[in-house]
Amino acid sequence: MMTATNRLIPISVADPSQTGNARRQALALAAHMGFSEVRQGQVGIVVTEAARNIAAHAGKGEIVLAPWHLAECSGIDVFALDAGQGIADIARSLEDGYSTAGTPGEGLGAISRLAGSFHLYSVTGHGTALFARFFRDEPGQASPECDLPFAAVSLPVEGEIVCGDAWSVSRAPDRSVYMMADGLGHGPAAAEAAQEAVRVFQAAPHLPPERILSDIHNALVKTRGAAVSVAEILHKKAVLNYAGAGNIAAAISSGGKTKNLVSMNGTVGHTVAKFQQFSYPWENDPLFIMHSDGIATRWSVEQYPGLGTRHPALLAGVLFRDFLRKRDDATVLVSRL
């Protein structure tokens, strides 16, 4: 299972202290998760360099720290997002000593060496998304199964401490299941509903999506309710089964086309006309995208050249950067098998 409480740290060239704040938060999170002192230091270096790059080259942006757990694996995903001028020559930018801002030019090279997994997407004039994944175990000790082609960003609306959105994942060799819940409104009561949905899902992820959704509905009667969706991917059968109620958006992107999935109207835990499961083909190395209504729905993968073939974390970061509504909790999850 993977669950996360994320942290967002704004970065601006006008406030150099924000870079130090990002570093301190990253170090504290790594220590809390049981990273060794060496690994804590590496996380701190990467976050510092990523924040400095944002300030120097884009002027402003944000760092998102996303901790995760999956079976015996744990780690921290670092997103560095900006809407600045972009990187004209990514290959050269990764070379030590190369800089266009009068800095030592060691940032991206250092990040790529220290991170367990590193990916970068940039379009000239439209900004940059950087993703670095750190495993709690030392390099070489983490299982390859820990580095899944999957990532999520999940953050509360500004002014709230807890997030009213929640998500969870169950993965097996022949089957992957994804659940997302958006508690009605935001704040502690919304978070209570969303976390109850996670609890029910994690108790029986082997059930079909329609049954999981029904069980969550029964459990959420005592809460304010939520929008909830469940997706099941059967790897060998190449089928995705989906059941949802409320305004969680979900889509499959494949072959240059995006297919939106069908959810029923209603609020899980209160009033849902009926639960219905729909099946879709899972072919041609597709991406699965799921997000709460804190992310606007007017996006398309095709508007970002080449992004659909890259690591799913980059798409998650770009959608969060470009389509955040800023008036509700926001969660976006992207996966590729």
Write structural notes for this entry:
By secondary structure, the chain is of the alpha+beta class. It folds into 2 domains: 7-146, Heat Shock Protein 90, CATH 3.30.565; 150-335, PPM-type phosphatase domain (Phosphatase 2c, domain 1, 4-Layer Sandwich). It is built from 7 helices and 17 strands. It has a 5-stranded antiparallel sheet, with helices on both faces. Helix 1 (17-32) packs antiparallel against helix 2 (37-58).
Q: What can be said about this structure in brief?
A:
By secondary structure, the protein is α+β, with helices and mostly antiparallel strands. 26% of the residues lie in helices and 33% in strands.
Helices and strands, with pairings:
Blueprint: E1 7-12, H1 17-32, H2 37-58, E2 60-70, E3 73-82, H3 90-93, H4 107-114, E4 117-123, E5 127-135, E6 150-155, E7 165-172, E8 175-183, H5 188-203, H6 209-219, E9 226-234, E10 239-245, E11 249-254, E12 257-260, E13 266-267, E14 271-272, E15 278-281, E16 287-291, H7 312-323, E17 330-335
Antiparallel strand pairs: 1-2, 2-3, 3-5, 4-5, 6-17, 7-8, 8-9, 9-10, 10-15, 11-12, 11-16, 13-14, 16-17
Helix pairs in contact: 1-2, 2-4, 5-6
